[in-house]
Structure formats: structure tokens, C-alpha cells
Amino acid sequence: MSVKPINVGLLGIGTVGAGTYTVLRRNEQEITRRAGRPIRITRVADKNLELAQRVTAGAVAITDDARAVVNDPEIDIVVELIGGCGIARELVLEAIGVGKHVVTANKALLAKHGNEIFALAQQKGVMVAFEAAVAGGIPIIKALREGLTANRIAWIAGIINGTTNFILSEMRDKGLPFAEVLKEAQRLGYAEADPSFDIDGVDAAHKLTIMAAIAFGIPMQFDKAYIEGIAALDAADIKYAEQLGYRIKLLGITRKAAAGIELRVHPTLIPARRLIANVEGAMNAVLVQGDAVGATLYYGKGAGAEPTASAVIADLVDVTRMHTADPEHRVPHLAFQPSAVVDTPILPMTEVETSYYLRLRVEDKPGVLADITRILADEGISIDAMIQREPGEGEEQTDIIMLTHLAREKRIDAAISKMQALPVVRRAVIRLRLEALDK
Ligand code: HSE
């Protein structure tokens, strides 16, 4: 066994970069025993030289010129932890172009530019590894790409954004409104200073796009994802859902349907008795349904310095082991052989079939319920459960909450517009989606 170290150039030594540096050093012996040779970060590039100096304590060459690291002939693997789709994209393409392997945690980059990046990597015979891009420390890419390779994947449903899961947990636990909990999340450092990527569901959609590609052998199609965040969620609906035996989670769902692939992120009612419904706080979890294995559930920390470093280093070990292998003998980037990737259409949201939670604020008088159920019947939508809040003393309006059986989204849209036109319906109808997650 060769003992020559493999040399790593680290681009970005922020939270995850520093975690990677620390864990690699702390567990050096174990990692070397596993990888077959030492893995050494020999160069670090960061705009903040003082930070880089502080983390590495002078043990490594530091620079603010990332291109110098990418083009250094001594570097075997480039680890990109800069984030975003600007300079990070340029550097990743440049590194691949000069024949370096790349490890990245950059989900936005892969979801939006993955097709270009993997095509170039294929052409150049290098590896691009990205375990840290989805659900932080949870080895979900490894599981989907290798562990579940015997299966036809039916669907994946994931809690893949810790910030929003923390917010939803707090809203339910403490009955607080969204805006107040968001402030708390910011104070605790969970949410970004600009938390819109988290709360609008975009971060989850990036991760979902990547999982869908490797689960179904399709290209990255982030621009076709349906994305709805949690900002408009009302604490009242969390409470009503609970009364009906459900929790509301921001789920990323991808499913292979007869006519195409569903790719959607939205607040979702799920039965409270499911394990995944009990994933609280900033934790992540991914539920995968395979035809042979059935349901498997992966749980852990989806963010943070060392959990994410754990995934980055797993990739470094993989690349180190496979470095000298013929490219054809490596696990394909997107799990399927590049020639076998099929451009299956992503279903528009109107064609998706799921169950629904509807809440209507109505005048409390005879015939109202009959009008509403007639509209649903006319659209072929069947009701599964219903509650009506008892109006308070002197109140003339009340809430009706209904759960439906499976229905196509366009039929629900049509029913909602008809309901909205009834004079007895006094506010915008609230519509949430519901997933049983049982088969
Ligand atoms: N902002 C992300 C989250 C971090 O809250 O889960 C990792 O992508």
C-alpha cells in the first residue's frame, strides 16, 4: 500500500471548512486506516486570511487566490465550500477542466448547474462528490446511489431544511406565530441573516432536485420544481391538523407517477404516528420507499460544522480509494450510467395527485355545508374527515376543516375557486397538502 498522502486544496474555511479541517486532523489515524493513505489539506484559499490563519494555526499554506489552489499541480482534490453559483461554479469547472477531483457541499450549484458539471467531469474522467450537499451529515447520497441500488424507488419524502423544521416545531410546541419563531431562530443562529432560502423552500428544493436525479436517473431540473415555503402558514392550521392526528412539516417530495415525476416542496400534513412526523427542531430526516426494501428512514443533523464535515470527509475517503480506478469502474455521479439517464418529464403541480386539508371561514347558517360538499362532489373529490369548530358566544362565523381523499390538484383548484365564490365563505380558503406516507 502506498503511503504517499493525497493532497487536498480547500476553497473556503468558514463553518464547514473549519469543521472539515478539524475533524480530518483529529481523526487522522482512523481516516488513514480506512482510506489507505493519508488525506492532507495542504492549501487553503479564503478571502479572510486572518480566519484561515486562525483555523490552521500556520500548519498549512494559505492564500486568498482560489485559482492558485485549483491550478496547483500538487493538489489532487479540490474541496469547494464557498457556496453559491458565482465564483464557486467557475472554480469547480476550472478544477475539473485541469483534471482535479472535486468534493462540494454546494446544493444550489449542483441543482442548477449539475448537468453541466457532471458532463464535464465525465469527459475529464474525474469524480465530483457531493454527500454534504443533501441533509448535511446524513449519508443519504450513499444510501440512494449504492445501498438501495437494487430498488425501483417509488418516492422520497424528506425534512431537508433544519431552519424551517425548527420553526414549525416551535410553532406547534408553543403555539407561537411564524414571525415570532423566526426571530428566535435567527437569535439562535439557525436561520441565515437573510433566511428566505430556508423559509421559502428553495434550499429544500435544491436538495430534493439532487435526490430526484439520483433516485430516478433523470437530469437535474430545479427550475421545474414546485416550491412553497412556510411563511404563510397559520398556527391555527397546525392546531387543527393536530386535532385530526397530523403534524405539519415542510417536506420535499419526489415521486415516480405514471405520467412523470413529481418534484415538490410544500408544507405537508403527515400522520402524527409516523416516525418522520416526530423529527423535531433543526434535525433532518429522509424517508425512501423502494420496491424491494420497502420504507427506509435516515435521520440526523442536516447542518453544522462537524456533521457536514463528516459528509465532506466521507467523500474525500471515497475519492482517495477510487482515485486510481478506471473511471468506468467508479460509481456513476448520478447513480445511473450517464448514457442511461432519461429525461422523464417533471409533472406540473396541477397534475399531481395527493390528499388535501381545506379550511374555510364560513357563516354559520343552514345549507352552508351542503353547498361546500356539493362543490367537492361535482369535482369528483371525496371527503375523508371533517371538523367544524363550535362558534364562540355571539359569533356568526366558524371554521370548517376538511380532509380529502386523493384528488388531482387541478380539481382541488377548481373546487376552491367555486367555494371562494360562495357569499357565505368569508375569507380565502386555506389549502394544504396531505401525505399518508404509507405506500
Ligand atoms: N440552511 C440549511 C438548513 C443548512 O437550515 O437546513 C444546510 O443546508
Describe it.
The chain is an alpha/beta fold and 439 residues long. It has three domains: 6-139 and 305-340, NAD(P)-binding Rossmann-like Domain (Rossmann fold), CATH 3.40.50; 147-300, 2-Layer Sandwich (Dihydrodipicolinate Reductase, domain 2); 349-434, ACT domain (Alpha-Beta Plaits, 2-Layer Sandwich), CATH 3.30.70.260. 37% of the residues lie in helices and 24% in strands. It has helices spanning 15-26, 28-35, 49-56, 66-70, 87-97, 107-124, 140-147, 162-174, 178-187, 196-199, 202-216, 235-243, 305-322, 368-378, 409-421; strands spanning 6-11, 39-45, 61-63, 77-80, 101-104, 128-129, 153-159, 226-227, 246-257, 260-271, 283-290, 294-301, 353-363, 383-388, 397-404, 407-408, 430-434. The strands form two sheets. Strands 7, 8, 9, 10, 11, 12, 13, 14, 15, 16 and 17 form an eleven-stranded mixed β-sheet that branches. Helix 6 runs parallel beside helix 11. The model has no long low-confidence stretch (mean pLDDT 95). L-homoserine is lined by residues 136, 161-163, 198, 203, 302-303.
List descriptors.
439 residues; alpha/beta; Rossmann fold; Dihydrodipicolinate Reductase, domain 2; Alpha-Beta Plaits; 3 domains; eleven-stranded mixed sheet; six-stranded parallel sheet; 15 helices; 24% strand; elongated; binds L-homoserine
